[in-house]
Amino acid sequence: xxxxxxxxxxxxxxxxxxxxxxxxxxxxxxxxxxxxxxxxxxxxxxxxxxxxxxxxxxxxxxxxxxxxxxxxxxxxxxxxxxxxxxxxxxxxxxxxxxxxxxxxxxxxxxxxxxxxxxxxxxxxxxxxxxxxxxxxxxxxx
Length: 141
Hints:
Blueprint: H1 3-21, E1 28-32, E2 38-43, H2 56-67, H3 70-73, E3 77-82, H4 86-95, E4 99-104, H5 106-109, H6 129-136
Parallel strand pairs: 3-4
Antiparallel strand pairs: 1-2, 1-3
Helix pairs in contact: 2-4
Protein name: tRNA-specific adenosine deaminase
InterPro entries: CMP_dCMP_dom, Cytidine_deaminase-like
GO molecular function: catalytic activity
């Protein structure tokens, strides 16, 4: 961690505080370019937007995939107040961002949140894999 990393991580934590003050879940993130300049910043808006996917990391990954050339995206760093969840980590990977620096790990966050009370989702499959494979096969070549 460099002094710049710490400064930018504190800025992401400040965005999380902004989200909390607005009645939103307390998560914030920003994205810097190859030169360290802040390109975009977001905080969680899942309550106000009535959108369970309105995490700041996901919003920044979508922005980067839309707005940045792949080589620029690969040279970016995302600074985020907490370790990205599975949904956001997948989006970050698919958007081609180069680096993520986070302040609070999932293990550190979990005891601060209420326990999950929803029953686990039942997954059935694979089913009809040959038919599904025929549609996908060759697409990624």
